[in-house]
Amino acid sequence: MPESEKKDNPPNPAADVKSAEAAAQSTPDLASQLAAAKAESTANYDRFLRTAADLENFRRRALREKDELRTAATGRILEDIFPVLDTLAMAAAAARQPGAELKGVADGVEMVLSQMRSALAGHGLKEINPVGQAFDPHQHQAISYQVSTEVKEENVVQVVRVGYALNGRLLRPASVIVSSGPAKEAAAV
Known about the structure:
By secondary structure, the chain is α+β, with helices and mostly antiparallel strands. The protein has two domains: 1-123, Alpha-Beta Complex (Hemagglutinin Ectodomain, Chain B), CATH 3.90.20; 124-189, Head domain of nucleotide exchange factor GrpE (Nucleotide Exchange Factor Grpe, Chain A, domain 2, Roll). The protein is built from three helices and six strands; from the N terminus they run αααββββββ. It has a three-stranded antiparallel beta sheet. A three-stranded mixed beta sheet has the order 2-6-3, with no helix packed on it.
């Protein structure tokens, strides 16, 4: 403080006592606030660690449940295919018998094919066999065009390889031959 101010404001012992008391009162208040802040910080850190551990446990449990679900679903599909395998084994054994008729073997293979289609359809697999239908590039893959007077232009003449969809999701498009309509005569030159 400048000398002139000291002369104008003489020392006030009562004011010094009041400021000392205020400082003494604020010190315990600051110390208790600091202690409270440290306790809250410790509690928040503990809560953070517990939440992080819970999240990690949830992630592990979700992965384990996903694997168990996949295994269970695969098991159900395989259980439906076992009878198909049994029938196929019997058909193969019958085909090896002396004097086996070709028609009987062909009928057995047709039966196995029907059984397999039925088992897979029960799990949501649908065949895409679009003979005579309009060509759909979202469901079909055109491998060639063919002139046809019987089938309209841009319709499927023949299915080379059947397509498949699982519960509405395309797994494999049908490979098809598309009609280009009746033959067009060459323009006169």
